[in-house]
Design brief:
- The chain is mostly helical.
- It is built from 5 helices and 2 strands; from the N terminus they run αααββαα.
- It has a two-stranded antiparallel sheet with strand order 1-2.
- The chain is flat and about 40 Å long.
- About 10% of the residues are buried.
């Protein structure tokens, strides 16, 4: 099974109304001092490298499409490369992928 097919979701399976609400909450959180401090620190949650604030994106650890929410405990700064590479994976899937690559 390919990596892309495993994480593919049918758009009909995602509650679009909930998705829209969560995305709005994320936009509001981007304006808070809490998020601005995260960006100011300049560290990607995944690769731990330093970046300028403009090079970091807001990532949902548990993706919205997989049931995640826009709350402080589910949002982290991520570099664009890590965010794009993570796709719709959950933290457990990331760990399992890393372990399978070591074998």
């Amino acid at each position: 099974m390919s990596d892309d097919s495993f994480h593919a979701l049918d758009p009909r399976d995602v509650d679009q109304k909930r998705l829209k609400k969560e995305r709005q909450k994320a936009r509001e959180l981007r304006q808070t001092p809490w998020w601005k401090e995260k960006l100011k620190a300049g560290v990607c949650h995944y690769c731990h490298k330093n970046f300028s604030a403009s090079e970091l994106t807001m990532d949902h650890i548990v993706p919205l499409a997989r049931g995640g929410v826009s709350a402080k405990n589910n949002l982290v700064p991520a570099c664009k490369s890590c965010n794009a590479g993570k796709k719709l994976k959950t933290p457990v899937e990331e760990i399992l992928d890393a372990l399978s690559k070591k074998e």
